[in-house]
Amino acid sequence: MRSTRGVIWHDGRFQDWHAARTHVMNHTLNYGIGVIEGLRAYPGDRGSAIFRLRDHTRRLFESAQILGIDVPYGFDELMAAQRDALAASGLDAAYVRVTLYCGVDALGLHADDGHPDSDDAQHPAAADDKDDWPQDAAGGLRAHCVIAVWHMGPYFGARALDAGIRVRVSSYSRHHVNSTLCRAKATGNYLNSMLAYREATRDGYDEALMLDHTGFVMEGSGENVFLVRDGVLYTPELTAALDGITRRSIITLAREDGMQVIEKPITRDEVYIADEAFFTGTAAEVTPIREVDGRSIGSGTRGPITERLQAHFFDAAHGRLDAHGDWLSPVR
Ligand code: PMP
């Protein structure tokens, strides 16, 4: 019987949600070398469409390139698979998760010592001979791909988009730029995010704001951050932060709206005295920040510029902005 959570695209085949499995000794589970992408689909006048599918797929390939993982599918093939997975879900407003994980070809850090019980058999491009494996920086590990789709409402709850959220500066630093390579949306990078998020929510906050190893503001556990001061929009440079696609969208929309946007190092106290602050992310969309470390930000609720940019963002996502029709990939 089909699961209520629907189907999952796994290495080219649709499987029931509960039947999609991998070996418990897979390399990504043990060492965290894998790649994820997260996308949203929004309903619009012309049906459901995935927001910035091409850009997300490009980032997936770039993340794999950074980690030295060979993606076993072509770019167009993976774009089509994401659209197919959304169509199969029957949802029109949804979150799409793409995961590239490494199999059980090796049991240790030294991945090129292959393992006889590898899950090659599940792999569409399985080669009988280990000598044919791509010898890349991930040590010849073979990648597998999963696409799952589920319903996702506002990430921080229904009221957060209007009222804003409460944030604490994390005691955990964001990755050093030369440790786990932050341009990659790597599964292992989320250990840093999880520690920060869990600390913040355990302390009664909604989200963490992470500083880099030198103390400059970097990002949330799964969002980029923006400040507004005297009508100018500020965001940290992309050093240890993910190159967020929502961040890019907001920079474009703000400039089109006539705003000045400055990417620069931002200190913690600049956040405390900002007129407005907000997070951006596929899941978080544009979420106002109303409080940081017990200090109200601006009026302590969503500010007018945040509200305007949020409206532009949702107009683009729902296909109401002619200028950015190219950001939408219709499902059919
Ligand atoms: N930073 C981190 C650490 C994230 O996980 C995310 C979510 N992908 C973002 C920023 C925002 O990126 P995007 O807008 O592409 O979702």
From TrEMBL:
Catalytic activity, reaction form: L-leucine + 2-oxoglutarate = 4-methyl-2-oxopentanoate + L-glutamate; L-isoleucine + 2-oxoglutarate = (S)-3-methyl-2-oxopentanoate + L-glutamate; L-valine + 2-oxoglutarate = 3-methyl-2-oxobutanoate + L-glutamate
Region (Disordered) location: 113-133
CDD domains linked to this entry: BCAT_beta_family (cd01557)
PROSITE patterns membership: AA_TRANSFER_CLASS_4
SUPFAM superfamilies: D-aminoacid aminotransferase-like PLP-dependent enzymes
EC number annotated for this UniProt entry: 2.6.1.42
Biased composition (Basic and acidic residues): 113-128
Pathway note: Amino-acid biosynthesis; L-valine biosynthesis; L-valine from pyruvate: step 4/4; Amino-acid biosynthesis; L-isoleucine biosynthesis; L-isoleucine from 2-oxobutanoate: step 4/4; Amino-acid biosynthesis; L-leucine biosynthesis; L-leucine from 3-methyl-2-oxobutanoate: step 4/4
UniProt entry keywords in alphabetical sequence: Amino-acid biosynthesis, Aminotransferase, Branched-chain amino acid biosynthesis, Pyridoxal phosphate, Transferase
Cofactor dependence: pyridoxal 5'-phosphate
Pfam family, one: Aminotran_4
Role this protein plays: Acts on leucine, isoleucine and valine.
Sequence similarity: Belongs to the class-IV pyridoxal-phosphate-dependent aminotransferase family.
Protein name according to UniProt: Branched-chain-amino-acid aminotransferase
Organism listed in the record: Thiohalocapsa halophila
